[in-house]
Write a structure and sequence with these properties.
single chain, alpha+beta, 4 helices, 5 strands, elongated
């Protein structure tokens, strides 16, 4: 079987749907820019922005496949997160500077589940 050179492999990705594990610290725009640069294409876009501090699946479409991005935007998504109890930051997220700390003594698993349930389920953004 003949070996396929890199150029031929990259040609296949000119009109593709790419599933990219976006790392924390990179913006969705930066990931799309890297894809454009690597594939030497001008046409690429993502199907929903992930926050810079978030990691997760970023759907990137290239070339003619960019017409499909709207279908991915309409699909249901699932998010998970991590919470640090007893800490408040100036940005109300993990990227800020800690401005207050409180004891979490007496907080039960049931308390956490009850509070977390308010942030579960279908949310329209």
């Amino acid at each position: 079987m003949p070996a396929v050179d890199l150029h031929q492999r990259l040609q296949v990705l000119q009109h593709a749907i790419l599933l990219i594990d976006k790392p924390r610290g990179s913006t969705s725009f930066e990931v799309v820019s890297a894809v454009k640069r690597l594939l030497k294409t001008r046409k690429a876009g993502h199907s929903g922005t992930l926050d810079k501090s978030a990691s997760g699946l970023l759907v990137v479409c290239t070339g003619r496949a960019t017409k499909l991005t709207r279908y991915f935007l309409e699909e249901r998504k699932r998010y998970t997160g991590t919470v640090q109890l007893g800490v408040q930051t100036d940005t109300d997220d993990g990227t800020g500077t800690v401005i207050a700390e409180r004891s979490v003594d007496g907080v039960t698993e049931e308390d956490i589940r009850r509070t977390a349930s308010r942030y579960s389920g279908d949310v329209h953004q």
